Automatic annotation (TrEMBL), chain A:
InterPro entries reported for this sequence: Gluconate_2DH_su3
Pfam family, any one: Gluconate_2-dh3
Protein name: Gluconate 2-dehydrogenase
From TrEMBL, chain B:
Keyword set includes Flavoprotein: yes
Lineage of the organism: Bacteria, Pseudomonadati, Pseudomonadota, Alphaproteobacteria, Acetobacterales
Entry protein name: Gluconate dehydrogenase
Keyword Protease part of the UniProt annotation: no
Family membership: Belongs to the GMC oxidoreductase family.
Gene3D superfamilies: FAD/NAD(P)-binding domain
Highest taxon above the source species: Bacteria
Domain FAD-binding, chain residue ranges per copy: 5-42
Matching InterPro entries: FAD-bd, FAD/NAD-bd_sf, GMC_OxRdtase_N, GMC_OxRtase_C
Organism for this UniProt entry: Gluconobacter kanchanaburiensis NBRC 103587
Any one GO MF annotation of this record: FAD binding
Amino acid sequence: MKLPSSTRRNFTAGLLGSTSFWIYGGHKVWADALQAESGQPYQPRYFTAEEWRFLNAACARIFPADAHGPDAAALGAPEFIDRQMNTPYGHGELWYMSGPFRSGAPNLGYQLSLPPRDLYRQAIEAANAYVRDQHKAHSFADLSAPDQTAVLKAFEQGKMMLGTVPAHTFFEQLRQNTLEGVFSDPLYGGNKGLAGWTLLGFPGARADFMDWVNQKGAPYPFGPVSISGETA
Amino acid sequence: MCAKKVDAVVIGAGWAGSILAKELTEAGLSVVMLERGDERATAVEGDYPSSIDELRGAIRHRLFQNLSQSTVTIRNTLDQEALPYRRLAAFLPGEGVGGAGLHWSGVHFRVAPDDLALRTNVVARYGKGFIPEGMNLQDYGVTYEELEPFFDKAEKVFGTSGEPYTINGKVVGKGNRFAPDRSDAFPLPAMGEVYSASLFRTAAASVGYHPYALPAANASAQYTNPYGVQMGPCNFCGYCSGYDCYMYSKASPNVNILPALRQDSKFTLITKAHVLKVNLDADKKKATGVTYLDLRTKKQVELDADLVIISAFQFHNVHLMLLSGIGQPYDPKQNTGTVGRNFVYQTITTSRAWLSPKQYTNLFVGAGGAGVAIDDFNSMNFDHGPLGFVGGSPVWVNQAGVKPIAAAVGGPGGKAPTWGEGYKDAMMDTYRHSLTIDAHGSNMAYRDVYLDLDPTYTNAYGQALLRMTFNWKDNDIRMNQYVVGKIEPVIKAMGATRYSLGMLKDGEVFDTRRYQTTHLGGGAIMGSDPKTSCVNKYLQSWDVSNVFVIGASAFPQGMGYNPTGMVAALAYWAAYHIRTTYLKNPGPMVQA
Ligand SMILES: Cc1cc2nc3c(=O)[nH]c(=O)nc-3n(C[C@H](O)[C@H](O)[C@H](O)COP(=O)(O)OP(=O)(O)OC[C@H]3O[C@@H](n4cnc5c(N)ncnc54)[C@H](O)[C@@H]3O)c2cc1C
Ligand code: SF4
């Protein structure tokens, strides 16, 4: 009989609620957040150096720098994804992961046996192999930005496989996690300086619009605030 | 838990279970409510500011069912192999005290009376031949007049905000002119209207439709309900859907019923108790109690009871009936049996209108149940004769508070890129200056759409998963397309700079990867004929008379309205008849 794993139990039993401190998947998010504020460049805990280069480059192509602001790598999306790999989510503990694993019509949803962390590992290695094969570069991160974009487009639209992972499945995982990193509370490592929220005009954890139910189309005047009280 | 025998056991601590548990303890019964998930209290799960966290909340599904333990399998057609629903997406069942009632949005409807006797009405107006081949169109077997006092009671318990149209036959307000007559006003006045909703109201009226304020179980003012529990006024924080309301403003079993129930010594709530099956006597005519798995000790426990209430949410209700052997499983080939028959959902599609760069829609402001709707194309409110389909959709602006991750991952809409160059510009325009309009419609029942046990996949406890065989059908696709067509003039009247209409495509298959609604229905439907229904008009099993099955599982077809108002009214209705009739003389309340 399979019962909730100890990580899952920690995840829920550890929600202390009254402060922003909680045990998340066996490690302390708050301690991580403090470390992030200490100004040291973030050292990935899950991804290898080669994978980390891939991730930084890919995040920056998915959410690029432009007149509106920095790219997703500068906003901490790779750090966010790295940290997520050590949560119940990264381990696939929020998904039904019992076999048999069979492929089926795409509309029936994800059917791979890989949790996110294994999916990244397999697909990044295969993506770099694809780049070596097609572009004569050592790895994805060594390509020019336009070439990186072209490779990601091929993954998004193509029918090719990256190891056992359909390329578009990997691309969608990457796109979703990158945007999660840009737009989640900075507590998780991304959205540095609340730049993601500022871009959209989302006020974060303010969560009280009693006076702003209907201001006849005027823009909301206050900038964002995070769960820990950071403002921008 | 030392008592081995209780008067009643209630399975599931959501809306239906909490209502039944409250009513049965009021009747003097000893009641044990078993909930597979964790204890949940707003002071903890709803604590500000840690609850205002989209990643942990709606994205990683903090309060929802953990699929790693149990899920369903899904296929579109009878000849397909069903595959597991491995990641939450299309629908989001609840888990833990309060069930989905803790993280619902709060749109709180009654019912369109015509929908209760849809078969009779369609046949009377258009003839039998109007019903498409393979559609199992049926009546509920209960009338609006019978249910009215229980709709009224549920609204008072939920603290519902709304604007009436008629009370006791007299026009009293500017509410929904298609809404059925009421015996009393809403307990609270209608919620305020966000900018998008007020634009929709003006534009809809200008093209001849009849806009009204959505009835919302979000408190427009401070309120104390009949159980003596208090709600605070909603501040439009936008964290209803997927969250526990930190303001105590959204109705939930946790806020509106359980504080009163927990004080009753005859009531016991056991969490982390996953019910494996209802136990039956040898001839399967009487339930003797339930067997549950204590998830803390990992031990199976047998609990005897005179009365068993299955209120575990629509499809869990059907699953438990199939696992327990209550009634005869439905067979779509032979067209025999009833358990799993008439499994239905709802159609929903979203259209978007972009306004001028000077108009900010502030999409993050909102409340889950608030908005402005029209019913001109719902139920039987329009002539279906020339259209050749059954059903309809309310249409609304229900700005419930759009969060940045959901918005960003969903993309800017229209033809704009979903990443890379041009994405930010389009996303900023959409998030700041657009609004959405939904067609939230009915879904009819079909002979080859049903629920049964999966032959391959099992849950963490070794039991067969429930299998859904579900697809969209031509009737419902054409209904959706027709109603969405009626949105276009409203968008034009709003002065939108551009728009995109969302509608089901011809032949579209059900896609499990995209959130639609958690408004699943049927599978254990009510009715007046035991050959085509599982439970009688009092939601009592035709086969096992001391089992009552409460939830949207009772709906013979998916209606245009959100289901919970109807679920709550049916729960109070069933409870009333258990209290006044069944308990005096236990046995079938309707002779088969
Ligand atoms: C995001 C979201 C928004 C929604 N918004 C609306 C809305 O605006 N309007 C509306 O009308 N409806 C809405 N709904 C639907 C609404 O939540 C449900 O209709 C309602 O909660 C159903 O009540 P219930 O008691 O039948 O089930 P639930 O509230 O889901 O309760 C069932 C309980 O049973 C427990 N359970 C299941 N199986 C077992 C078992 N074997 N043993 C023990 N316990 C078990 C579950 O854990 C759960 O706690 C929404 C749903 C979601 C997810
Ligand atoms: S919008 Fe209102 S009802 Fe909803 S969570 Fe916020 S305060 Fe509560």
